[in-house]
Amino acid sequence: MSELRADIGIQSMIKYGEELCGDHVDLQEQEDGSALVVLADGLGSGVKANILSTLTAKIISTMMAAGLSMEECVKTIADTLPVDSARGVAYSTFTIIRLLQNRQAELFEYDNPYMILLRDGKNYPLERSEMTVSGKTIVRSKVTLQENDLFIAMSDGCTHAGIGLDKKFGWERDDIIAYLESLYDPSFSAKTWATILLEECSNLYKFKPGDDTTICAIRMQRQETLNVMFGPPAVHDDSERMVSQFLASAGKHVVCGGTTSQLVADYLHKELRPSLHYADPDIPPIAYLDGIDLVTEGVITVNRVLEYARDFLEDNQSYVKWGYKDDGASQICRMMLEEATDVNFFIGRAINPAHQNPNLPINFSIKMQLIIELTACLKKMGKRVQVTYF
User: Fold this and answer.
1) Residues 22, 92: one domain?
2) Same-domain pairing of 252 and 132
3) For a surface tag, which of 63, 157, 180, 270 has the fewest beta carbons within 10 Å of its beta carbon?
4) Tens of pLDDT, residues 76-112
5) In terms of Cα–Cα distance, which of 344, 272, 332 is closest to 302?
6) What is the pLDDT of residues 326-364, one digit of tens each?
7) Residue 150: which CATH number?
8) Which residues span the domain enclosing 143?
């Protein structure tokens, strides 16, 4: 299996005056590491477009994931969806990218703006060929994947941005490519790229989108594992086993919690060096321990990480905070949300006596709930997560 992993980020905004988005993105993942992403743009806007795009994306992704051909998928769509009375067309436009075991990408495009591929920060022209399916021209291309390849799929709301305002012909594809190249940073997550591009579309629309607009970014990154140890074990005699398993796991290592970090320091026979610098007044300072990538406070810091992770799955507005700040929560987010493809949690079930004060809002059940919710968020981002309790 390829060492590459697909980081996928999706952002959408609704046409001004509408309540539902007429675009839809569907993702299918398979056990062999392959993935299928379909971006469908329903004709028109509102409820009808939403239904058309959702059904189109669902039908294509389900059938292709089951091994059926593009011809069968398109025929099924044409036979299944209702015909638009004004246009006489039965389904939406679409862009399909199939990642074959993260080694090759196969693209199928029908009437959406052509997908953009940045390789080493520069536009990489794809060799496209045409195929006719049920009277429709489908554009097909295939490319061998490389680390840091960045694919940008979009609905035509992106290229229409600015029409009649600052852009006579809209935001043309060549201009979008130049914009992406000017901002290129291989450390940006796919969600960050989608957010950046959508915000520029919103600016060009003067914050009143004239069309549903969706960006789907796919970044190919090398497998990176982050190991997080949070809390001491329920049985003290298990401390050495817990720490040894944590340290033996390949990848970066983060320790959360004062008692937990002291356990690791004792195991390593190293000095734990607390910092007095508050990078964020609401987040306790970090500490330093040789052999560990990051040492932070426990529940307060992890709770902030969860808040940022929830926002990351929504509009990603908090990125301006955690993307550049040096507090413990921000540093964990950069490692966990941007860099890591795999996250291993080593969670101690010991009850901290300090947290049993009824006047404090922290207790054992809240600590466990933090990990459950954070794990769920990370899985929604497509990351592989393993949790081991001690």
Assistant:
1) yes
2) no
3) 270
4) 887 787 766 666 665 789 999 999 999 999 999 999 9
5) 332
6) 999 999 999 999 999 999 999 999 876 555 555 544 555
7) 3.60.40.10
8) 4-222
